[in-house]
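A quick aside before the break. I want you to see a complete sequence-to-structure record at least once, exactly as it would be stored in a machine-readable document. Don't worry about memorizing anything.
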Amino acid sequence: MPLRLPDRLPAIEILKKENIFVMDETRAHSQEIRPLKIVILNLMPLKITTETDLVRLLSNTPLQMEIYFMKLNSHTPKNTPVEHMLAFYRDSQELMRQKFDGMIVTGAPVETVPYENVDYWREINSIFDWARTNVQSTLYLCWGAMAALYHFYGVPKHLLEKKKFGVFSTLPINPQLPIFRGFDDVFSMPHSRHTEVRREDIERVNGLEIIAESPEAGVSIVTSRGGREFYILGHLEYAASTLDIEYKRDLGKRNDVEMPEHYYTHDNPTERPQVTWRSAANLFYSNWIDYYVYQETPYNINDIK
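That is the input. The structure line, written in C-alpha cells, reads:
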C-alpha cells in the first residue's frame, strides 16, 4: 500500500529494505487521491521501533493512507531523541482539532501503576473521549486497551502472579466477523504484560464483546460500538525479534525473568525465534482498514461523529 509518511521518517528506509512500498509526502502530493487519515498515539519508549512495526502492518492494503504521529503535552519521552519528536510528532491538542478515519493507541510501560497515578492520565482520558466522536475506528493495544476499557467501562486490571510472556494460541470466538476474514481456526499472538483483564469483569458490561481468547493468555481481543473500538491485549504488531530483545535485555537484571513461551525453536534461546503470528497480524490490520475504516468512514471526513 502507498503509505504517505513524513519525509525522512526512519521507518521509510527500514521498510524499503524489506521490499515494502511506502511513499513520502513529496511523491504522494503528485497523486490526486483522498487518503485515509490514520493517527498513531505512540506511548512506547522506543518510538522508532513501534513506528516501524505499525507502518509495516498498515502497508498491507492497496489503499493510500496518510499517517500522523501524536505526542502528549503532559509527558516527555526519555528514550527518543528530541529531534525525532520535533520532526515527526504533533501535539495532541493540535491533532484533536481534526478528524481521522482511524486511530491506534499503543501500549505503555506503566501497566503496574494505578491508572490515576500515571502522570498523563488526565490528558489521555481527554484523547479517548475525543476519539469517540472524531475517529471512525480505533485500535487500543495492550496497556492502551486496558486503560480505555477502564476509562469507558470501569473494567479493572489485575496483577498477574508472573509476567505473561511469549506467543500464545488464540481462538476467534466469532469467526464470521469481518475482522477475522481469512483467519485460521487458531492463530498466534505475542503477549508481554504483567496485568490482565478478566472475562467475568467484561461480561458484566453491556456493549462489550470478547471476540478472541487464549486458553493460556486469557482475554485477547474485545470490541465495542459495532467495531468502532477494538481492544487488543497482545502485540500482533511485534517484529520477529522483539520478545528476544526484551528477554535478553532483562535477563540478569531482575530475578523474575523467564524465557518467552512457545517462541524459540526447540525452546532454546540460542536458536532463532519461530514467527507464527505474521499472517494473522497482516490479516487483522488489513481487515480493520478495509471493513471498519475504509468501508465505514464518511466520504466527507468531517461527517464522522
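Two observations worth writing down. The longest strand covers residues 158-172. DSSP finds ten helices and twelve strands in the chain. We'll return to this after the break.
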